[in-house]
Records
---
Amino acid sequence: MSMLDRYKKPGGFIQLLTLLETCGAAKREKFLHIISEENTHWFEALKPRILTIELILDWPQEVVTELTSRTQPITLAALSKGPFTSDQITKLQHGLSHAQLSKMRELLENKHFSPNEINSSIEKFLGEVRAHIHQGVIKLDKFAPEMVVPNEIEDMLSRKGQHKNASKVTDEAIPQEYLSPSLFQNPSSMEQSNQSTIPSSEAKGPSKPGPLGNEEVVQLKKVNHQLQQELQIMRQENRILKDKLEKIRQIA
């Protein structure tokens, strides 16, 4: 069994993301190398969605404060001893309650945090952030849509692998009418298109199979569904790029 096999079930992608985020830098790089060797599609989908403490501290202040307000003071104290800039630590502590700040400062004055304790606190914090995202406390689509994990992503990635290796449904096998943009708006038009390809002389006689069998039509519907989800992701990424370009123009 390969490393990825156990994560190809529904929810497995999030489980693997959480493992990569909380296993430490050295193990994470080792796991990513193994994943890249096994399946490039999974590697390319996982890597840009991995949470790091530096990435989180680049999020809007109100999001960071929402996260830290749900974090134990001892974890925040250990994070404050981490390898971060003064601005990052200020952002980490901003907006905390008086009770949280008092407890955290007390811990910073009276407790020595070893490197292992600091690393463990970082991993714990990342695990908590991932849980908050999964529970809907944090909405990534509001400020980091490129990190949103689509529903049924495991199935999407499996189909990508099938198409690359030996898919029965290829561009050459699919008639042009099945690649029409209208299919993305009305998936049921595939069945209508399939029916329209049957000559009228045959339609009047006993029922005969069209150019595509039922199984192939179902497969095409699934491919269409996958492409719709991928198109949504591309639109989100395009919107982000447009926003960044507009900011650059304003600065220039």
---
Amino acid sequence: MNSSGKLESHYSIPFIVDPINFEARREWKIELNAIRSFAAGVFSEICSSFVICHEVGHIACGHIEGLKHFEGPGSLAEMASMSGFKKKSKSNTERRQVWEYDADAVACQLLSNYVSELIDDVKVNKRTAELFGSEENIPETVLALTIVALFAFFSYMRGVRYKLHFNSDHPHPIVRACYIRNMLYTATKERWNINSDILMILVDQWLDDLRDSLEHIDFLDDSAFGEDHMSLIDTHHDRLKSLRKVHGKSCDQWTWISWS
């Protein structure tokens, strides 16, 4: 993406370098031209929208009531301190992992509407067309960049989680990004006639590029996923699907939705 031209975003913000020490701050200069500023806004909105939709998914799936029923009074937190909470049983841990998977599924269904709006916007907004291209494979490009943006966000959250010594029921960012790719594809394929082969090529290419960049700055530890990483990703995903057969109906009496 072209970085030349007049600056549209030109300001400084205090950035917390060390999440354990909020006083350790550094002034970061944000200097972006028009298209990079627009891209930053679009991708940050994608990530924030996903978070909101994910939390709506927890509510709609009945997980709040389920938590009280299975684990007693408490809160369904995205992160729980390792030192401040009692260790969950294996059954509770696996159930929560299924709940996170289901909340992601709801989030993908809801986020597909935002993705569709972006695809439509390419036709009428020059800046959106400049970001995603205006020639061919627009639906696949928008969908692929959405998935890559979410992977970057998941990787950031994982880094913060380890820095703060927190635990989480979410899988590794690359596992999560891959099953979200499948979920978003399923939610959008009929409306936009998505070419799955092109989508896979774009996602794999851009995920690999981003993973290399994140590893280079010690932002992502991918040591668990070596050369045979796709097989390991499939293994992790298959495990989640197997757990869903066990715990998938645990909140049926409180859910607002039905799964097909």
---
Amino acid sequence: MQLMPSSTVVLLVPVFMLLWLCVGLGISFYASQGWRAWAARFAADSRPVGRCFRSPCTLCHPSRYERGAVHVVFSQAGVYLHVPNFFSRWFCRPLLIPWTKVDLLQSRFGLCIADFPDQLEVVLPSEAKHELARYYHPA
């Protein structure tokens, strides 16, 4: 069995790295289409001051963000959501959802954000309960 010359290996490494980057960006672009639709309506200019919580699960069709991928901050203006992941941050701009669009989830502790025809579900950790109570006052 003959080994590849070292110059071929040196050329293949950057090619595979570039391929990995392109595939990752392509997947992130496709998966973030629902988030981009929300960002077109509720783009945030800056992060509000407040405690940051990590959502255990966030549903934003067609994507499901798990294990704290979405960070949540409550403020007087609304709910601030952002995805700090390396690939996702290019396509998932931060959101600031006004409180008028926010309801509580019935099945578990979290938020249901509806803006026809889309719906965004943000499950919250239990330690966010007190912070949410400071800002969320249903009509």
---
Amino acid sequence: MIAAALAVAAGVSGCAEETTVISERGLLIGLPDAERGGKPLRGGGGSANPLETMGDGELIRTTPTGERFLVSQSPRHVIILTRRLLASNDESDRVLFYNQLISDDTKRRAISEGNDPTRILEYFTENRAEILDLLAAMPMGELSPDVAFEHVEDGSGKDRSRLRIRSSLARKLEFTELWVQREGGGKGQAGYKLLWVK
């Protein structure tokens, strides 16, 4: 009886629902001649790689006084910023990387182990090629097909996540994991920070 009433109510409305597609997501978005149902696929911005559609002005912002700060609201942003800042030969980019993208917990741990926290920057610089290889294997960040994105419960009470290469590609890489942590901060710095690579 109730099922019949629901079926009648659903059929009585008689109105057709109209759907307008503003943006589509998927692996084929942005590829030449890609179609779905005979219609060309179009993305929200044109590029097939969402990491490449974000400009420096969106993630690296400059105040009227010339101070730069990072905006990192997702693990993908951490990857983009790490690529840009590590690949740069500009010393100010490396300082920005260390001061604003490296997790405060990573710096505190270095101090608690009796190490100079600036050694973290040296480590990333010395291993730059291998770290950039890892990031290249994650072309769409946590949405990459060969990446496992996992929230990590390690007893710290922190919002930590790990992006791990889970394909045979892992055997070819020096590093296979990127760890990120959600942290607060001032002036746009709230968001995800780089915890470590393994």
